[in-house]
Amino acid sequence: MTTGNSMDPRQKIRLFIAGAQKCGTTSLKHYLGEHPSVSTHLQKEFAYFYDDKEFRAGWNAADSKYYGIHSDSIVRIAKNAGLYVKESAVQRLHEHNPDCHIVLLLRNPADRAYSAYQMEKNHGHISDDFSVVKPLLKSRPADDWRYEFFIKMGMYSDYIKTMLNYFPKEQFTFVSYESLQTQPAAVCMNLFETLRIDTSFQPDISVRYNVTHKMHSSAYAKMVTRLLKNDNPLKKVARRLMPRGQDVKLGEMLRNVNKSASKPEKLSDDFRSTLIEFYRPYNEELSALTGLDFNIWNKLSDKL
Fold first, then answer.
1. Residues 110, 267: contact at Cβ < 8 Å?
2. For the chain, how big is the Rg over CA atoms in Å?
3. Higher-pLDDT residue of 302, 152
4. Is residue 189, in this structure, part of any structural domain at all?
5. Which long-range contacts (CB under 8 A, 24 or more apart) does 31-36 make?
6. Is residue 220 part of a domain?
7. What is the pLDDT of residues 192-216, one digit of tens each?
8. C-alpha torsion angle, residues 60, 63, 68, 74 (rounded to 10)
9. What is the extent of the structural domain holding 186?
10. For residues 188 and 217, which has the higher predicted lDDT (pLDDT)?
11. What is the C-alpha separation between 282 and 301, in angstroms, rounded?
12. Do residues 113 and 154 touch, judged by C-beta distance below 8 A?
């Protein structure tokens, strides 16, 4: 297996968008990837460090899958919106490149939780009302995926403390979801400067990616989810027959067909208030850890 120390320096990932889920990570990956000096993957998520099976297959297989032929002038970036929650994945990234710059996009955890629920609902993974997670705030079951996906992933400070055991604070850029929404060009310019590449380049920030909308059909959503699983024989055949990256675009097209023009109903103020109180101590600790003020998330009126 090729290790971080033995691989060609051009293969090393220089910047990794490590989370958080439903915080604009897909949009940021696309914006940064438009830069002529940047190379990124077509796939929505770079799974090599996160997925145990893919990691065991080795770097060369992942390198071919995600990047193909590389160039001397290309700076590599990657994105996995769930990497921050898995310590072994963070450790693997550190072994790959201890100098990697880490970007964490962070959204009001109450709103992130509801957006994650809407995404899973659109994928056909859950049909219950969002209120089903309310009892989980007290019970905190370690074996309930709904608690892990909707609630725990918003406890940012817990995960950042773990990540700081592997990467120094100066190698992190923390970006609020609100900043990416209102100042995407400035966010990109700051990261271009961090990568020491041309900061005058202007990506097309008019497009927003992976926006959550209501679905037309839950049955269709479940069918597409089954079809896009990696172990589905049809998907394996499609990967062999289609040009590199086209299977990814096809998957996105199939999902987008099911999206309506309508946005989901807003989270009720009552339940949102409950979530905000739950996350308050985590937001306060996050502010202390990062030196940025995230306490605005502790107000009910703060929502985008």
1. yes
2. 19
3. 152
4. yes
5. 31/184, 31/188, 31/203, 31/204, 31/205, 32/77, 32/188, 32/191, 32/192, 32/203, 33/77, 34/201, 34/203, 34/204, 35/192, 35/197, 35/198, 35/201, 35/203, 36/198, 36/201
6. no
7. 999 999 999 999 999 888 776 555 5
8. -130
9. 9-212+263-298
10. 188
11. 19
12. yes
Tell me: cis bond preceding 20? Omega within 30 of 0 counts: yes
> CB-based burial of residue 200 (10 Å sphere; 0-12 exposed, 13-18 middle, 19+ buried)?
exposed
Task: Return the SS3 of 267.
Answer: coil
Residue linked to tokens 């990497």: 83
Cα angle: 216, vertex 219, 224; to 5 degrees: 90
The tokens for 57 are 């297959």
Q: What is the pTM of this model?
A: 0.83
Length of the chain: 304
Helix then strand then coil, % of the chain, to nearest 5: 50, 10, 40
The domain that holds 88 is classified in CATH as 3.40.50.300
